[in-house]
Design goal:
InterPro entries: GntR_C, TF_FadR/GntR_C, Tscrpt_reg_HTH_GntR, WH-like_DNA-bd_sf, WH_DNA-bd_sf
Distance between the termini: 39 Å
Structural class: mainly alpha
Shape: elongated
GO molecular function, one term: DNA binding
Number of helices: 10
Protein name: FadR family transcriptional regulator
Keywords: DNA-binding, Transcription, Transcription regulation
Organism: Pararhizobium mangrovi
CATH topology of the largest domain: Four Helix Bundle (Hemerythrin (Met), subunit A)
CATH architecture of the largest domain: Up-down Bundle
Radius of gyration: 22 Å
Strand order of the largest sheet: 1-2
């Protein structure tokens, strides 16, 4: 069996673990796309060819292609084969896609694009939250902040999860149904971005202070201050992201 699929072997035996093998095939094809081995708008090898290359069955490859098609990576059509889609068609908010991009050191660019989106949306959402948050929603925002603070500096993963919860709660507290739906859509992307910026940050004290200030702004119903604080928080995230920018 090819080295690429060694991780698909079941523990305690020499037979492939079907579930893990399927996952491995999805990962391998995706990474071949990301590295340019399979180029945009080009047709990838057929099922039989790929199955032979990877030492697996046509059925496993077919299911892997279906998964990648659902994520926007490829377009598979009968008789026409499977073509690699342009990146503009990839589901960049999908957790697997984000993980692949992160592994291939492309997540930095995606995080910058997400920051642009957040600068458009989140200051206004923070202002709305200050105007509309219920007592329960304020408690959820506060709880997320306290979990962030308690997790640092040792538990970065816990901090990032709490940070996502903080921003999800803030968007939900805006009282706008579309912003609340957007929160669920971008959750995975936010987590990847927070994992990146939190690890790049030289100090977490300013980030914590800005989150705490946002809690106070919402509690005091100060919409103007909430919008300004969120703008400052996003500027801090941009500086942290810039500190880890790849060299030109």
């Amino acid at each position: 069996m090819p080295d690429e699929l060694e991780n698909g072997l079941a523990h305690g035996g020499d037979r492939p673990d079907t579930k893990n093998l399927h996952r491995d095939v999805v990962d391998i094809i995706a990474r071949r796309v990301l590295t340019g081995e399979y180029r945009e708008n080009e047709t990838i090898p057929g099922l039989e060819n790929l199955a032979e290359q990877l030492g697996t069955s046509r059925t496993t490859v077919r299911e892997a292609v279906r998964v990648l098609s659902a994520k926007g990576f490829v377009d598979s059509r009968r008789r026409a084969g499977t073509r690699v889609n342009p990146r503009s068609q990839w589901n960049l908010l999908d957790r697997d896609v984000l993980a692949w991009l992160l592994d291939e050191n492309i997540a930095h660019d995606i995080s910058e694009d997400l920051l642009v989106l957040r600068r458009i949306i989140e200051p206004s959402a923070a202002m709305l939250a200050a105007q509309n948050a219920s007592a329960r929603q304020l408690a959820e925002i506060e709880d997320a902040f306290h979990r962030m603070r308690a997790s640092l500096p040792d538990d970065i993963d816990g901090c990032c999860q709490a940070d996502v919860d903080f921003h999800m709660a803030l968007l939900a507290a805006s009282g706008n149904a579309f912003l609340e739906q957007l929160a669920h859509t971008i959750r995975s992307a936010l987590l990847v971005t927070f994992e990146l910026t939190t690890r790049l940050a030289q100090s977490h004290s300013e980030t914590l202070w800005l989150h705490e200030a946002l809690v106070e702004n919402v509690r005091k119903r100060d919409a103007t201050a909430a919008g300004a604080t969120m703008t400052d928080l996003l500027a801090k995230a941009e500086r942290d992201l810039g500190s880890g920018a790849p060299e030109a």
